[in-house]
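Section 5: illustrative case.
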């Protein structure tokens, strides 16, 4: 474990040579504190003390007779491969949107009708448009994004009343630099016309 350095490794070897167990326990505690100081980022992790003791035992090559507050891992446990995790998949035409879009859609569905909900829906649609254009390397019309969003939300989010989708600054900034900066400036000055429909809440159309 090179992140701890040669000094700590030497201290661990010295601790193994101490004949008195009480002294070994005291030295092991001191080494643990020193390891925490050398790697302060571990303190942000859950159960970081437990990890330090595990690391101490690994540095000792699983041969250290001290009273640890945690059970030491065996070589077999460390060698065991983690269980394979199923990768979340989107089916068919929607695989390029990613799991984060689905999570945002669920969050938007849970929100009460209002400005916050409308703003989140617009963020979702803009990111869907960006993902579609980047993955398919072609321009997509807004009505396609509206249809996909409606289908992914099982008809609970409906943007069919919007005349145009505000362009994503992340995606279109790159596109317009290649084409026409003046055109980009003109587009920014034009406010997007929005009118959201929410079938789930029977939210009235707003112009």
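Designed sequence:
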């Amino acid at each position: 474990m090179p992140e701890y350095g040669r000094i700590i490794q030497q201290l661990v070897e010295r601790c193994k040579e101490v004949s008195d167990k009480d002294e070994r326990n005291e030295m092991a505690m001191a080494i643990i504190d020193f390891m925490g100081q050398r790697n302060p980022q571990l303190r942000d992790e859950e159960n970081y003390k437990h990890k330090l003791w595990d690391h101490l035992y690994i540095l000792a090559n699983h041969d250290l007779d001290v009273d640890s507050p945690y059970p030491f891992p065996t070589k077999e446990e460390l060698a065991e491969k983690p269980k394979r995790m199923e990768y979340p998949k989107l089916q068919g035409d929607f695989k390029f949107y990613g799991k984060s879009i689905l999570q945002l859609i669920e969050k938007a569905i849970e929100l009460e009708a209002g400005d916050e909900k409308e703003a989140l829906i617009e963020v979702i649609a803009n990111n869907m448009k960006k993902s579609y254009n980047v993955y398919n390397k072609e321009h997509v019309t807004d009505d396609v994004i509206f249809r996909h969003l409606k289908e992914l939300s099982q008809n609970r989010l409906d943007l069919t009343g919007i005349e145009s989708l505000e362009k994503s600054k992340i995606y279109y900034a790159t596109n317009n630099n290649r084409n026409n900066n003046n055109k980009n400036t003109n587009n920014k000055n034009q406010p997007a016309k929005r009118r959201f429909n929410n079938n789930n809440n029977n939210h009235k159309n707003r112009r």
